[in-house]
Amino acid sequence: MRPPAALPRVILASQSPRRRELLTLIGIAHEVRPADVDESVHQDEAPVPHCERLARAKAHTLAVQHPDAVVIGSDTIVVIDGDILGKPRDRDDAIAMVTRLSGRTHTVFTAVAVAHGGETQSGVESVSVTFRALDAAQIAAYVDTGEPMDKAGAYGIQGFGATIVERIDGDYFAVMGLPLGRLIGLLRALGFGYAFGPVTRS
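Above: the chain's sequence. Below: its structure in token form.
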């Protein structure tokens, strides 16, 4: 069996600062080049196929433009009562989302895709997240921090939102936006190794 190859140039097809932080956390040097893809939900499209399709589209779009690179695409959605909650349109929308999640359990789906050499590997992590019960004043105060405005479901588990989450069942990093264990598995599936340390270009 051929030994795993060192990672070449890595591109993150996302402008999410959380995903940048997570790649940096595990030592993978990377460039950021957000992919311009239509993120609307197709008619009758279920949540898991939706987020995996978007992650693959983001990775593929940049991989075509940069065939020498390994491209990582990811997409995160929040689902409750079968409805997909994306990023809030405005303050009122954010308040409505957090109000709906208050005191209840919802599901976070994060898809990750890795593309290189004409091949794309992808997968989806599913995480159950339970919010503690919040009153209207608490919800308004949280939304007014500004943190919810660029996040699916109008909250961030790694920021002030950590105080409104009661428990999670699954991959914490998937809730942040990038399931690291699955990412490393997808890189291995494409023939690339990970050495538990700073990963530089070959």
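The chain has a mean pLDDT of 93.
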